[in-house]
Amino acid sequence: MKINSLTQIKLLFFTVLLISSLASCDHTPAKKNLPAGVHGVEVIQVLNTTKYTYLRVSEDKTEYWMAIVREDIKSGDSVYYSQAYDMKDFYSKELDRTFPSVFFVQDPSGSPERLAATGGAHMPNAETSSRRQPVTKMDNLKVEKASGGITIEELYKNPEHFAGKKIKVRGLVGKLSKEIMKRNWMHVQDGTSNGANFDLTVTSADIVTEGNVATFEGTIALKKDFGSGYFYEVIMEEAVPSDVERYE
């Protein structure tokens, strides 16, 4: 049976169309039309620790490691995010493993649309990321000022005066985040305030657990930008805690 020229052209057209469709058919998250600033990855390997889930992922045929606050995720799942910071030569004590590079993701999501709805790559400050709830003021809190120190109210009344200086602040740790950017992060309050400012973020190599009062001695920095949305108007860095006791 002979096939006329028109039929041959049609067959050739549909063959080319089929090949093109197959070549462009890629269901990995990274190939979707993602909102600006949003990354899409496919999970290849999962390693869980007490607080974190480490994921080996693929994005645009590139593999890398990322970490999120522990979640129930399995190989083959899709994860989307817009906020992450890269930690080089990061050592995990629980895994007893050093990662040449691992991205700590702040806003993992199963839906790119959800990230777009919350503003995509925009994150005004560290306190308002999708993984961080706003810090609330502790009612009826009274912590005695450290000897030779200042209160949080005094600090916020005149932060420029204390910029670059080492000071002491005594307060209650209301929130602790361990080993982020090679620091431990603590939210400290003493019951005083200046306007809406009642909480001081403190970074330290040491740890004071939540519910404990301590005297923190460290250097005050203003308008500190760590990148990836970690921006602080006032922060105490490299603090050394002392006189730690349980708040009663």
Chain-wise SSE layout:
Blueprint: H1 5-24, E1 39-48, E2 52-59, E3 62-69, E4 78-81, E5 84-92, E6 97-105, H2 112-117, H3 152-157, H4 159-162, E7 166-180, E8 183-189, E9 200-204, E10 212-225, E11 231-246
Parallel strand pairs: 3-6, 9-11
Antiparallel strand pairs: 1-2, 1-4, 2-3, 5-6, 7-8, 7-10, 8-9, 10-11
Query: What gyration radius follows from the Cα positions, in whole Å?
Result: 25 Å
Along the chain, the helix and strand elements come as HEEEEEEHHHEEEEE
**Average pLDDT for all residues:** 81
The number of strands is 11
Strand content: 35-45%
Summing up helix and strand content along with how strands pair, one would put the structural category as mainly beta
Top-tier CATH class of the largest domain: Mainly Beta
CATH superfamily of the largest domain: Nucleic acid-binding proteins
Supply the number of structural domains.
Answer: 2
N-to-C CA distance: 96 Å
CATH architecture of the largest domain: Beta Barrel
Biggest sheet descriptor:
6 strands, mixed
Looking at the structure, the CATH topology of the largest domain is OB fold (Dihydrolipoamide Acetyltransferase, E2P)
**Share in helix:** 10-25%
Strand adjacency order, main sheet:
4-1-2-3-6-5
The total of helices stands at: 4
Unreliably modeled segments: 20-27, 118-133
